[in-house]
Structures are given as structure tokens and as C-alpha cells.
Amino acid sequence: MSYEMLLKATDGFSPTYLIGVGSFGSVYKGIFDQDGAIVAVKVLNLQHQGACKSFMSECKALRNIRHRNLVKVITSCSSIDFQGNDFKAIVYEFMANGSLEKWLHPAEESEEEQNKSQSLTILQRISIAIDVAYAVEYLHQHCQELVLHCDLKPSNILLDNDMTAHIGDFGLARFHLEVPHPNQSSSIGVKGTVGYAAPEYGLGNKVSTNGNVYSYGILLLEMVIRKKPTDAMFEGDLNLHSLSRMALPDRVMDIVDPMLINEEMAATGDRLRQALNNSREECLISMVRIGVACSVESLQDRMNISRVVHELQSVRKILFQATTGFNMQRRQ
């Protein structure tokens, strides 16, 4: 796909088409005149150190992997712009519901997006968490070569029309052959984003599947509590993990997202409704427990991602059955 085609599809990379800004570039909505197809176009900022390496890593990662919970790459562009400068872009399938970041933290967003956040139910959050866990399990265990994403966070989780979650932005991905020997320190330093990167990375340790699981655990806790790991409330020894660990099991409802409490309170009343509320509380406690188990400091003690998938599926089944039973009784 040519530079000229992408320029036209994004109205000259217009700010009105801008849908996100990442570590190494900006993402624009693109509309092609020929068939009206809508795409997302990530334009690399080649002045940023590491942008070219990020482009190559992402192309390599997404060329050989296919999964329903990974953002689909349509094509890439490596060309020259009209001023004679190098131009690199990656064209993705468009995700109509944007990033999980905007659903969880809409404070600076429009009123419409704030309303979206209010409709992100506990069942939707569990489903999103399972989608992401499925994708991580695939990258760790079912690719021809191990792929480490290295930057799991809400802004890299994208939601389609059906609210199915997809992991995007593989610009920091590492592959099996690039992972240092277990007895060697890594020279690549901290991988990922502050708050989500595993603590051992700050000590120069190698990137690993356990490091990805740590990031996933922080992401899961953030989805339930709706606090960023870099929130101003966290100082000293208090962080998202320790807050959650200390709340288990009896004080979890004191720290979860108030929107989930309101959702729970809306179903109070008779015994059946109370049973539904109990199921919701049980599910929230389980999600926090899993998030804590994934984000412990000792990397050897973190929960295996396949076990995460299994336990979250059980959590969703409990909630789904309780919700279905409540709705059936209410209609009778």
C-alpha cells in the first residue's frame, strides 16, 4: 500500500482522524474511497529512537501469528513521503470500540465515552480479561516460536463491535531466539511501561513469560478496581498489588470500581436477587485473587497463564448462570 493511498485515506493524516498516540507513533482512522473500508493506520515517528526497530519487530510478530484475540494486520508501508523523508506505517483492522484505556479512564473524554464506561459491566470485564488471557496463552504456548508482548496495558487492548478484546501494538515484542540465556542479564533494560513492567526487568533480568503474566495481573486488577498502577494514591510500599492483596478476601468490595457496586446494588431485594449479588461478589473476589497471584514479586510463584484462563472461565460461568437464572425468574 502506497504512501499516497494512506495520505488520502486519513485526509492528510488530519488531527480529526487521530485515534491514538503510542510509544513510537500515531494511529489514525483511515477510510478508502474505493470500497469505504475503514482501517487503523499506525504511522511511525522515525525521529524517535527505536522506532525503526519497533516497526520491524511488529511486522515480524504479526506476519506469522493468527488469533481471534490479536489485532489483525492488513498490510504495511515502507516508502518515501512527498518531502523525500522515510515513511513507515502499519495498517490494522479497525476496532470500532477503541481501547480498554478509554473505557476504564474516561475522565478527559467526551460525555459519550463516559457513558460507555458506565455500561462496562462485570460480565463484560470478565470476558475481556479472558480474551486477553487467551491471546497471551497463544503467544506463550501455541506459536511456532515463543512471542513475548512486553507491553500489556489497557491502551494496547482494543475492542471490536462485539466488545471482543484484541491485543495490539507489538512494537516491543521479543521472540524466543532473542531471549537471553537464563544465566545472562538482559541489555535491553526495562521493557514495557512503568507500573505494568515486571519488577525484575528493572534489575536487568531477562524478559520472560512470567514477566508478561505480571503485566497481565496488573491489568486485571486495574479492570476490577479502576485505578491505574501509577495513580497518585500509590506511594511508599502501597501499590495496586499490595492494596489488592491486603483487601483479600473480606474487604475486596471496599476497593472495587464503584460502578460495579452500583450494578450490584441495583439487584438487591428478594432472596434471588441477593443470590445474584453474592455471585457477583464471589466473582469480583476471584478476579482480584487471580490478579494478585499473577503479580507477586517472585516470578517463579506467579500463576500460569493456562490456569488463569481456566479459573476465569469458571468465574464467568458462575456469574452467567446466576444472571441467567435471575432473568428467567424475573420474566415468569
From TrEMBL:
Subcellular localization, as worded in the UniProt entry: Cell membrane
All residue ranges annotated as the Protein kinase domain in the record: 13-284
Gene3D superfamilies: Phosphorylase Kinase, domain 1 (3.30.200.20), Transferase(Phosphotransferase) domain 1 (1.10.510.10)
Gene Ontology molecular functions: ATP binding; protein serine/threonine kinase activity
Catalytic activity, EC: 2.7.11.1
Enzymatic reactions: L-seryl-[protein] + ATP = O-phospho-L-seryl-[protein] + ADP + H(+); L-threonyl-[protein] + ATP = O-phospho-L-threonyl-[protein] + ADP + H(+)
PROSITE patterns: PROTEIN_KINASE_ATP, PROTEIN_KINASE_DOM, PROTEIN_KINASE_ST
Domain of life assignment: Eukaryota
SMART domains, per database record: S_TKc
Enzyme class, broadest EC rank: transferase
Alphabetical UniProt keywords: ATP-binding, Cell membrane, Glycoprotein, Kinase, Leucine-rich repeat, Membrane, Nucleotide-binding, Phosphoprotein, Receptor, Repeat, Serine/threonine-protein kinase, Signal, Transferase, Transmembrane, Transmembrane helix
Family label: Belongs to the protein kinase superfamily.
Name of the protein this chain belongs to: non-specific serine/threonine protein kinase
Protein species of origin: Acer saccharum
